[in-house]
């Protein structure tokens, strides 16, 4: 029987199998003002987000030998120790506990990852040769937010379902306002734990439908999963500026249990209602982030430096601040608004989503 430690190693390395097929990207400076930030042009197509010609990029991949292990032992994350690093350490000790092959620990208790399956973690580097700091996303998943998007655009409810969707969202906002009031940092963090659910549920259900019906999805599975991942990155970012208290963690636990199931059922019964609700939720998110910006401008919330994870994910200048982060997150929410209202409209027009090409890489 495979031990628990070996199982964890297997899970970890399997997660790295994708990038091994996309080695040797073209490289060069992306933007001198961004210093350490890079995008991957050659591999950008993976996410439907090809780098612009001006964005010269560099991602190096050395998949084998001892290099992967070296990455695991030397992940540098700037000022912060992030979960990635802890996970890598956990994998190391898990490997040591359960692997069939032995690895030396140098007497310090940090075991090397045992590559029993012949798959090593990739080494992704920046242009200057320094290691990419994040395992949770790679350079080819980063992008510059489109801040020109219309933030004022709203969907006018017409049908009964539209009005029901809007009423649902407005009703949900009332307890949210009451609970968080003007603590926008905490509010953003908590709401992102909910916002990342619909894309995953919708993507999962479309995935199952594609399997059941032996038909293509039109790219909508990937588009919705991209949205879920993007929302989760919002959460990973706001976690750096606002730490959840124990009762907030408990609240997320309870809300997720209810919301996941409620959205799951709604999507099965009426995808057009589900997407409309998310469209209106995103309109509310834009409003919340606008209020967040007002508080930052008034000085009631300190405009601290942007977290390192945000600078890398949105390819922001190194001297960016929390205000810049809120701006790009708000732009993301506007894109989610468009995608979900568009998806609902497709259903309203009597089509299935697969009939309209999905807006992949729409940020
Ligand atoms: Fe979000
Ligand atoms: Fe969103």
Automatic annotation (TrEMBL):
It is a multi-pass membrane protein. It catalyses: 2 a ubiquinol + O2 = 2 a ubiquinone + 2 H2O. One of its GO terms (cellular component) is mitochondrial inner membrane. Keywords: Electron transport, Iron, Membrane, Metal-binding, Mitochondrion, Mitochondrion inner membrane, Oxidoreductase, Respiratory chain, Transit peptide, Transmembrane, Transmembrane helix, Transport. It is found in: Mitochondrion inner membrane. It is an enzyme of class 1 (oxidoreductase). The keyword Signal does not apply. Its EC number is 1.10.3.11. Its cofactor is Fe cation. This is Ubiquinol oxidase. It comes from Coffea arabica. The gene is LOC113703440.
């Amino acid at each position: 029987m495979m031990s628990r430690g070996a199982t964890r190693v297997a899970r970890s390395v399997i997660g790295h199998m994708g990038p091994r097929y996309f080695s040797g990207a073209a490289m060069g400076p992306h933007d001198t003002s961004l210093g350490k930030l890079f995008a991957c042009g050659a591999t950008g197509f993976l996410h439907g987000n090809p780098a612009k010609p001006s964005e010269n990029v560099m991602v190096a991949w050395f998949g084998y030998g001892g290099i992967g292990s070296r990455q695991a032992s030397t992940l540098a994350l700037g000022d912060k120790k992030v979960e990635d690093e802890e996970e890598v350490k956990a994998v190391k000790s898990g490997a040591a506990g359960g692997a069939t092959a032995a690895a030396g620990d140098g007497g310090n208790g940090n075991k090397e990852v045992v590559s029993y399956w012949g798959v090593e973690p990739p080494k992704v580097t920046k242009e200057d040769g320094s290691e990419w700091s994040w395992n949770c996303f790679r350079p080819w998943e980063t992008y510059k937010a489109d801040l020109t998007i219309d933030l004022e655009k709203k969907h006018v409810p017409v049908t009964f379902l539209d009005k029901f969707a809007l009423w649902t969202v407005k009703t949900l906002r009332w307890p949210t306002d009451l609970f968080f009031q003007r603590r926008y940092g905490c509010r953003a963090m908590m709401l992102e734990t909910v916002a990342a659910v619909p894309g995953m549920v919708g993507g999962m259900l479309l995935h199952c439908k594609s399997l059941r019906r032996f038909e293509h999805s039109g790219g909508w599975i990937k588009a919705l999963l991209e949205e879920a991942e993007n929302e989760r990155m919002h959460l990973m970012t706001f976690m750096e500026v606002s730490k959840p208290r124990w009762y907030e963690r408990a609240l997320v636990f309870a809300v997720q249990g209810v919301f996941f199931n409620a959205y799951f059922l709604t999507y099965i019964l009426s995808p057009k209602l589900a997407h409309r609700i998310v469209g209106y939720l995103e309109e509310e998110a834009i409003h919340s982030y606008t209020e967040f910006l007002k508080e930052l401008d008034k000085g009631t919330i300190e405009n601290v430096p942007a977290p390192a994870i945000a600078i890398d994910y949105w390819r922001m200048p190194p001297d960016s601040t929390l205000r810049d982060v809120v701006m790009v997150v708000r732009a993301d929410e506007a894109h989610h608004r468009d995608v979900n209202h568009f998806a609902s409209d497709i259903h309203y027009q009597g089509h299935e989503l697969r009939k309209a090409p999905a807006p992949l890489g729409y940020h």
